[in-house]
């Protein structure tokens, strides 16, 4: 009962955050953030969960990749992506998180070599409460939250996937 109550509490918090983000009322506290450091911290925080799911993880990137952003919200975004990898990947799969410069963008990529997303499902993954044809738990709003938070930072989110060959989600933030 306690675990279920905590899970429901997190869902209510997530729905509240998503509603605020969509209404433009999410409170961001921007400051200079090194995305490679933040990605390293996020992977470190998620490592026990990833290992419990039988996944290995690595992180890399360029040093001093600074953006003006809310570090707590970006950590949450990367954490949501890692949680999805833990839910959807298979034992033995690998997750890579990288932070690189691409033109005017700083790009954090969370990529896995898991089962991938069916082509017909890929356009819907950032929709609220959309969970596809799999029953792996979760509220179906994690990727919606990621999208809204990244857009609140003036960024963009994209995803590529091939069924059976992994998924890659990119968070583009202005430099």
Q: How many helical elements?
A: 4
Total DSSP E strands: 7
Largest sheet: 5 strands, mixed
Q: Report the β-strand fraction as a percent range.
A: 25-35%
Task: Please estimate the helix content.
Answer: 25-40%
Strand order of the largest sheet: 2-4-5-7-6
Q: Give the H and E element order.
A: HEHEEHEEHEE
Determine Rg (CA atoms, Å): 15 Å
First-residue to last-residue Cα separation: 45 Å
Ranges where pLDDT stays below 50 over 5 or more residues in a row are none
**Spatial shape:** globular
Determine the mean pLDDT: 85
The secondary-structure class comes to alpha+beta
From the structure above, extract its key features.
single chain, 175 residues, alpha+beta, 5-stranded mixed beta sheet, two-stranded antiparallel ribbon, 7 strands, globular
What can you tell me about this protein's structure?
The chain has about 180 residues and is of the alpha+beta class. It has 4 helices and 7 strands, in the order αβαββαββαββ. The chain has a 5-stranded mixed β-sheet. Strands 1-3 form a two-stranded antiparallel ribbon. A hairpin with a 5-residue loop joins strand 6 and strand 7. The radius of gyration is 15 Å and the shape is globular. The mean pLDDT is about 85.
